[in-house]
């Protein structure tokens, strides 16, 4: 059997790790690598990559955002594709970098080239690689939270569900208002904590009402926010990134377990 690294026709894919995955849940990054390699990709992780710049961008700091964007664009130059397990971060690279750099012709064109090869993980596996060969098993009833950026900026809805339908033993039970924001919103939860708390409480109520044993999603910000609220409510519902389930890498503690 020829591996991706041995096949010269394998697409060269750069993994955009994201800050929250790097700092709070590296397992998601390793799961993404496993899935991409199973799909036939040659995966690399550029060491020069940094934050995508969302915190600066969301707070109106265009100058800092532009500096970060240039660094990220340079770090990912030369790859066939750039893939990340986060709709919000990929949305930043794909949708917002060209806007931030629109007055800098050289970097604007480089930003557009990057945008054209950026994909969220499940979208890339389903729509680009046409990959369906999920080999994992996860015996549980789960529900799925649609993160705002992934859903509204990138159109991610059916891709994770289609892949999850291939997981042995998994029963997907949709909750009410799966498309409604969980209240994280990057710096939104810091600026408006009371509103954020009410929104995440509504979300956890719908998760509980679904009678699912686990809640899955594709953005670490949302998952950390939901996991924290579930823990404060004393819930036993487990929280995992969809990549962990698809890759069969749920053998460690769920997101939020053992954390303050």
Task: Pick out its properties.
Rossmann fold; Glutathione S-transferase Yfyf (Class Pi), Chain A, domain 2; 2 domains; single chain; four-stranded parallel sheet; 8 strands; 260 residues; alpha/beta
Topology:
Elements: E1 12-16, H1 19-24, H2 26-38, E2 42-44, H3 54-58, H4 62-75, E3 81-84, H5 87-100, H6 105-116, E4 118-120, H7 121-128, E5 137-144, H8 148-154, H9 158-164, E6 168-172, H10 188-191, H11 193-209, E7 214-217, H12 220-232, E8 238-241, H13 242-246
Parallel strand pairs: 1-2, 1-3, 3-4, 5-6, 5-7, 7-8
Helix pairs in contact: 5-6, 5-8, 7-9, 11-12
Offer a concise description of the structure.
The chain folds into two domains: 7-126, Glutathione S-transferase Yfyf (Class Pi), Chain A, domain 2 (Up-down Bundle), CATH 1.20.1050; 134-246, Rossmann fold (3-Layer(aba) Sandwich). Helices cover 48% and strands 14% of the residues. It has helices spanning 19-24, 26-38, 54-58, 62-75, 87-100, 105-116, 121-128, 148-154, 158-164, 188-191, 193-209, 220-232, 242-246, and strands spanning 12-16, 42-44, 81-84, 118-120, 137-144, 168-172, 214-217, 238-241.
In words, what does this structure look like?
It is built from 13 helices and 8 strands. With 260 residues, it is α/β, with parallel strands linked by helices. It has 2 domains: 7-126, Glutathione S-transferase Yfyf (Class Pi), Chain A, domain 2 (Up-down Bundle); 134-246, 3-Layer(aba) Sandwich (Rossmann fold). The strands form 2 sheets. Strands 2-1-3-4 form a 4-stranded parallel sheet, with helices on both faces. The termini are far apart.
């Amino acid at each position: 059997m020829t591996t991706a690294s041995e096949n010269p026709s394998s697409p060269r894919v750069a993994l955009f790790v994201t800050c929250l995955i790097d700092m709070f849940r590296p397992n998601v990054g390793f799961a993404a690598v496993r899935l991409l390699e199973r799909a036939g990709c040659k995966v690399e992780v550029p060491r020069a990559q940094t934050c995508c710049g969302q915190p600066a961008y969301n707070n109106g700091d265009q100058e800092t955002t532009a500096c970060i964007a240039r660094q990220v664009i340079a770090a990912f130059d030369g790859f066939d594709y750039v893939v990340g397990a986060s709709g919000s971060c990929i949305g930043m690279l794909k949708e917002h970098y060209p806007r931030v750099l629109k007055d800098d012709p050289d970097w604007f064109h480089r930003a557009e080239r990057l945008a054209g090869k950026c994909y969220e993980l499940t979208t890339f596996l389903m729509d680009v690689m046409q990959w369906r060969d999920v080999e994992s098993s996860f015996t549980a009833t789960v529900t799925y939270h649609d993160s705002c950026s992934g859903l509204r900026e990138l159109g991610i809805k059916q891709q994770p569900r289609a892949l999850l339908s291939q997981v042995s033993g998994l029963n997907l039970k949709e909750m009410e208002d799966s498309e409604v924001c969980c209240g994280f919103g990057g710096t939104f939860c810091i600026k408006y904590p009371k509103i954020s708390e009410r929104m995440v409480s509504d979300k956890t109520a719908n998760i509980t009402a679904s009678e699912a044993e686990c809640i899955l999603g594709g953005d670490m910000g949302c998952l950390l926010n939901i996991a924290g609220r579930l823990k404060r409510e004393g819930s036993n519902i487990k929280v995992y990134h969809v990549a962990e389930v698809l890759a069969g890498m749920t053998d460690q503690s769920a997101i939020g377990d053992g954390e303050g």
